[in-house]
Structure formats: structure tokens, C-alpha cells
Amino acid sequence: VPANIVQKVVEDLLQYGVVQRGVLGIMIRTVDGNMAKEKDLAKVRGVYVDSLMEVSAAGDAGMKAGDVIIEVNGTEVNSSPQLQGIIAQSRPGERVTLLIDRKGKEMKMDVTLNNRDGKAAFVSKDSREILKILGVEFEDIDSEEARKLDIDSGVKIARLYAGKLRKHTQIREGFVITHLDGKEVKSKEELIEILEKKRGGVMLEGIYDDIPGKYYYAFGL
């Protein structure tokens, strides 16, 4: 993990009690030779925008599916992890300038980043009580990872702490939740909202990237 991101995480925890992550609200894939042919792109560069989330800071700024992000704040980007790493250095409410390629035409776009709740404001420490109860941090997977796992969408368990999941299941970090009670999981926010309202038994279905097969974990709320 780059030192500047580690420093930001430490500063956020000390000042706010929770990490403040700015998000663009897009699903992305690294542009490679195969994608350039598939999407009829003139150049093999940048990060392709597969789709926009329902609440999207980038969408509010005018971004469209099919755009290719080639720079962030003047820094050239050529992979999804690189773009995510740059955005991770910013907080909700901060503005980033993107250079995008839209069908061969380059244009600049100023985007005010949202928080994980889709708002351009800091997240309060106790805003997600359900995450404390479960002892978990979730993160959305991007289109590239979904394609590698051969799934349409999912939410990854990024970290586990003391809580219901560790106490009542054998679930591991890295598990990608594809369904909750048989319903497809499309985003982290959707998953959290369902869990916040849920009472009684919960069944998680999903996969690991390093173990074949589907796995199921049940617990109560």
C-alpha cells in the first residue's frame, strides 16, 4: 500500500474515527488490446467506464458509459487499480479533474466525489451500525474483477473484525457475496441497506477467487 494512502488512513482514523473514502460511482475495466478491439477504441490506454451506479458523482458531472478515463489530476492512468489508488487519496466532497476520451474526443471533467452513501459529505463514525454488529467492511468489485469471476455483480468482504460473522460463520476475507436470501447483490450500498432493515435469519451466497464452488453462510440478525 503506498505510503501516502497509509498516511491518509491514519489521519482519517485519528480525526474522524473512520476512513473517509471518496468515490466516483462507476464500474470500470482496464483497457487492453482485446477490449480496444471489442469496444472499437482507437488507442490502448486508460480505464474504460462500463456503467454508472444509480447514484454517481461522475454521472452527475456528465460522464457516460463508454467513456475512457486517461488522466486524473494530470496523472496518466492505465489500469483500474491505479485509478482506484489515486481516488482513494481523496475524501468525499473533494474535487478531482478527469481527462476522458469519448469516441476519440478528449475532454476535461471536474467531479466532486461522493462518500459511500452517495453524498458529498464526510461519513460519521456511527453511521453504519450494522457494519459494527457484523464486524465487517464491504467493498464493491469492479467490472474487470466480476468478469474474471464469471459473475454479473457482487460485494467483497474486505476486512473482518469481532462480530456476528466471525462468531457464527466460517466466512473469510475475500469472500464475494453474490446473493442475499436468494436475491442478487448488485452493490455495497444496496447490501448494507437490506441488512439494516433485516430481522431474523440471513443467508449469504457467494464465491472465493481462490477456491472453486459456491459457498453459503447463515446467521441471524
How would you describe what is shown here?
- The structure is a single chain.
- The protein has two domains: 3-112, Roll (Pdz3 Domain), CATH 2.30.42.10; 129-220, Pdz3 Domain (Roll).
- It contains eight helices and twelve strands.
- The chain starts with a helix and ends with a strand.
- The protein is of the alpha+beta class and 221 residues long.
- Strands 1, 2, 3, 4, 5 and 6 form a six-stranded antiparallel beta sheet that branches. Strands 7, 8, 9, 10, 11 and 12 form a six-stranded antiparallel beta sheet that branches.
Top keywords for this entry?
221 residues; alpha+beta; Pdz3 Domain; 2 domains; 6-stranded antiparallel β-sheet; 8 helices; 30% strand
- Specify the overall morphology: globular
Helix content class:
25-40%
Report the total helices: 8
Count of individual domains: 2
Q: How many angstroms separate the termini?
A: 34 Å
Classified by CATH, the class of the largest domain is Mainly Beta
